[in-house]
Design a protein that fits this description.
This protein is an alpha+beta fold and about 575 residues long. Strands 2, 4, 5, 6, 7 and 9 form a six-stranded antiparallel β-sheet that branches. A four-stranded antiparallel β-sheet has the order 1-10-3-8, with no helix packed on it. The chain contains 16 helices and ten strands.
């Protein structure tokens, strides 16, 4: 008995320290896309009025991508002449022009007449000023723009070369003939990488009221999609195929052993199905952006809601695995209400955060507040999972169940590998992408989004193999004869006490020294005591409601007397 008590109080202090870190990264495996904004557009429709700030656009493009600038509609009550002046710059640092709108307003005095918010930043640029365009109420259309002949110039010229004059009229105003180039194609990119386009409309006179609607198109041989998101679209296509294979494999396993399926295996099937649909929706979102130039708002919102549901179910799967649901517990009891409540709240806030981020931008206040609330929920889930996962492994060790303990040890090893991989990747990502003053490795930006989704898919694959349907399925299932739960023990105790209520124990007299005096053996007295105190059947005590009442007995006797 003392040994059993010592076993129940045994604990491992290292598990309590290590499991929170393991579960921290595991919880975030399904929460990647809250950091992913909408795909970069390739088609813009912009209204320009008198006094508007210049059009400022940035996009990472392939080489030989055509930049189209076209005035699709206009309103000029009086005769007005427009000069369209634009500036296209390649910059090797991907993060050079973050928050470009704020930067442009703050650098109004330092840049002077230049359209470049950072005139001294490294890169190559083309600057062009088109011939004046006359607009009046009599015109039905405006003439198309021609392509600039200017060759790209370096902001910082190589050592020993002559510094070009930025006010060179031939370089700024030279254009191709309309027959030798496509109409409204103003420039073509000369290398792969991020670009900045600034377009300024200069009216003459400046006081008249007018408005223009301008279309800006950036389309290359791969479509409208940017060069940094092209690999991500291919990744979503591959992951969609991977999840389809996951679903087929799980369906075959479940069909072969459908009689022995465990409850947790239905949860795994749900996560696989939602992951497959989520990847298909994201793939369709990027493909639609590549074909149409911009993503559909309805498709973006649906993708965010579906992703929030998948992330919620992924968290619940890790929680119920850590609780030992179906392995050491047949049901979760009152804990189930807390788990479901946490899932509902997380799904609600994740949906709100995703919709606000898509509709209002990344840095808006409401989206930031909901992101903080999600971080609080994640913290609660981290504590909950780490505590119960340690308790589950401790329980399996106390019960000396090697089969189930081996199952959870393999799962623990998978989490350890995931933690090591995630720490290494976060160190690389911080050095290359977040803490670098110049993100020169812009081609690797897509890896930050893809890595966490791939890592979660790997953990899901391990869970599938560990909890796969098989002929030995019931070896991992909860067995009442071996894994008696506390609820069942309490029920058995209550039932046994109810049965013993009708049994009276014979009292014995004690001597003055405290020792019991052995009773005299008298068979007649013993038989009489048994008849008076012990019921003839246990059903007289355990099932008293089945016995007839006095009123029923009198009614029965009365009916029998009538028959006689």
């Amino acid at each position: 008995m003392a040994a059993a008590v010592r076993m129940r109080t045994w604990s491992c202090s290292s598990l309590g320290v290590f499991y929170p870190w393991m579960v921290f990264f595991t919880v975030f495996f399904g929460s990647v896309n809250e950091t992913v904004a909408a795909p970069e557009k390739g088609l813009w429709k912009i209204a320009v009025v008198n006094g508007s700030i210049p059009i400022i656009l940035k996009k990472a493009m392939f080489k030989d991508t055509d930049v189209v600038l076209k005035v699709v509609s206009f309103s000029c009550p009086k005769k007005v002449e427009f000069k369209i002046h634009w500036f296209l710059k390649y910059h090797p640092c991907y993060n050079e022009y973050n928050n470009i709108e704020e930067m442009y307003e703050l650098t109004a005095l330092s840049r002077g007449e230049s359209l470049d918010p950072k005139p001294n930043a490294a890169g190559e640029y083309i600057e062009h000023e088109h011939s004046p365009i006359t607009c009046s109420s009599d015109l039905h259309s405006l003439p198309g723009l021609r392509k600039a002949k200017a060759e790209p110039r370096s902001v910082i010229p190589p050592a020993g070369s002559e510094v070009p004059v930025k006010s060179d009229s031939d370089w700024i105003k030279a254009e191709y003939n309309i027959s030798s180039s496509k109409e409204n194609v103003i420039a073509t990119t000369w290398r792969d990488g991020p670009y900045l386009l600034v377009v300024k409309v200069i009216p003459d006179p400046k006081d008249d009221n007018w408005n223009l609607t301008v279309n800006v198109v950036m389309r290359g041989s791969h479509g409208y999609i940017s060069i940094t998101e092209w690999p991500l679209m291919i990744f979503y296509m591959v992951m969609c195929v991977v999840y389809i294979l996951y679903a087929l494999l799980w369906f075959v396993w479940a069909a072969c052993y459908w009689k022995d399926l465990l409850r947790i295996q239905f949860w795994i099937a749900g996560v696989i199905f939602l992951g497959m649909v989520e990847k298909a929706v994201f793939c369709a979102e990027y493909e639609n952006t590549n074909v149409a130039g911009s993503a559909s708002p309805g498709l973006l919102i649906f993708a965010e809601l579906l992703s929030a549901l998948k992330r919620t179910l992924a968290r619940l799967l890790v929680i119920i695995v850590s609780l030992g649901y179906g392995i050491i517990k047949p049901r979760l009891g009152t804990v189930m209400h807390r788990v479901v409540g946490l899932g509902i709240l997380y799904f609600a806030f994740a949906s709100i955060e995703g919709v606000l981020r898509i509709t209002g931008g990344r840095d808006n206040g409401p989206a930031l507040i909901t992101a903080i609330v999600l971080a609080v929920f994640d913290s609660c889930a981290i504590w909950f999972i780490s505590f119960h996962l340690a308790q589950t492994i401790k329980t399996l060790k106390l019960r000396r169940n090697p089969v189930k303990l081996s199952l959870y040890r393999h799962f623990t090893n998978t989490l350890i590998f995931a933690v090591i991989a995630s720490v290494i990747f976060m160190a690389w990502s911080a050095k290359k992408l977040h803490l670098a003053d110049c993100q020169s490795d812009w081609i690797e930006v897509w890896v930050e989004d893809a890595f966490w989704r791939f890592l979660f898919s790997f953990v899901l694959l391990v869970i599938m193999f560990l909890w796969r349907p098989s002929t030995n399925n019931q070896r991992y299932a909860f067995t009442p004869l071996i894994d008696d739960s506390e609820d069942e023990e309490i029920e058995e105790f209550i039932a046994s006490s109810n049965i013993a209520d009708g049994i009276k124990l014979r009292s014995t007299k004690s001597e003055t020294n405290g020792t019991a005096k052995p009773p005299e053996t008298n068979p007649d007295e013993d038989l009489k005591w048994v008849e008076d105190n012990i019921p003839s059947s246990l059903t007289d005590v355990a099932l008293p409601v089945l016995l007839d009442s006095d009123e029923e007995i009198m009614t029965t006797k009365y009916e029998m007397s009538k028959l006689e």
